[in-house]
Structures
1.
Amino acid sequence: MSILILFACGHGNQASPEDFNSFYEKFNTDESFQKSRIIFPLRGINTDEMSVLDTVYYWKKEDWVFFPIAEIDTSQFNYSIEYQPALVTEEVVSKEFLGQVFRRKYELLNGKWYLTYQADVNL
């Protein structure tokens, strides 16, 4: 009987993973929440700040500018989002300017979603 009680107590301590859609809405409307849910230095690509020899760019927490992705104008941009169990990738591609791409990757870490990668490409 004591084994059953220990199992039941231990099992109840596991929290459900955070819902991505709830996280995403808050991430794009709350500046301090956004900053708290980014793994800094944030790895990615930022062609405006990179030389042709650079292969990776790192955003620093102190230099981060709040950047919400609001509703996407689908007449000017293609928007896609891909859901996997612990990874969500979103991409915004300009229909008019080839080479203008914005991509973000979010990972579920210890039950919470975090932005772990960002690419801001303007070729």
Note: The first helix runs from residue 2 to 12.
2.
Amino acid sequence: MPIDMTPLCPTPDDFLPPARRPVLRFERRARPGAKRVTFADQRGLALTRVKVFSQLDDPVLIPAAVREALRSAAAVAAAAADRPRLDFAPPSSDYLRFRRNLETNLVSLERCELRGGALAGTVRVKNVAFEKRVALRVSFDAWRSHADVDCVYVRDAFPGAAGDAFAFSVPLPAAPPPQRRAEFAVRYAVAGAEHWDSNHGNNYGIAWAPAWSRRPDSAHSGSSAWSRGALPDWPGFAGYEDVGPYY
């Protein structure tokens, strides 16, 4: 049998080093505590769940004291939401303006306040003649109608006071009027003529507004402490009963 005596020649691949496998292997694993987001449908569950609540068979029992407290709180809140307030500063808060108004118009609103569900105050007029009539003309429906309320003469305890003093009291409606506002002016009839104090043509106003929007009472009543000290003939309120004197 013949034998192949051809010499074997190495190829370039024979000189390459054998392939080496890495000793360390790195595998990606989830970190401990890592969160994954999955949806219910991926687990074969429904995406929505409907729960129907039926009426309780046994009603919830609220103690009588709690019910009474809730009713009282609601009543107080409703009353506070509809309290009237004056939307003007009484002339007595500015003595010089009051005297100027009195000398020009022969009549001027002097003091005014809301007390006991009524509008009460005084008017000062120049003593033109003995026979005279002083009244408040009031409207609760934007002057579609009005009423005249006569003022009552009161004896002035301060000699030398400017003019005669008249007192008035006008009951206010239990419920706010539709416009939530009332207006009035002062009418003075004497010696065959009429004189008016209408707050320089703007009328005096009463507004029904929530308690939180009300101005402090001191802004309406006007402080007379300075007036009594600097101007001794400036009268002040001493109390009010029915339509009696304020002095």
Note: The first strand starts at residue 83 and ends at 86.
3.
Amino acid sequence: MLTVMRDLDRTYGIDMMILLYSTFVDLILTPYNLIVNLRGQKTLNVSLLLLESIYMLMLVVAVVAIVEPCHKTLKQVERAKFLVSKIAINSSDKLVDVELKKFSRFLILSRVSYSPMGLCTISRSLIATVAGSVTTYLVILLQFQGRDVGEY
């Protein structure tokens, strides 16, 4: 299991980081573009609002589609740790007991996580981190929008 996750990281780590980074940038630029365009108009452009909102929703779904399988895998590893420990406690066969305890130790000591290129760990906390970062960048962009560079 651990070697499979490491192989996945080695094989698809760069692809996953490019996907996460491009989605992150799109999640910043799309609402910024929407806000800037809606500010400059006297009437509400419903088609622009609808199109940009649907695109932002698709980006959020993409982030969740990346994170959720990783989260479910980590939950299954935790469940396997619990079940192997429970079976090891109730085992009456000495040979099976020894092997179950070895496997239980292996599961407990191995740090199972998806971390493409070692830059971030893909878990549900990544969604909150992305949401906070997008909000922060949007606030910064909107504060400095419309000012000349010489004013700073």
Note: The helical segments are 2-39, 46-90, 94-109, 125-144.
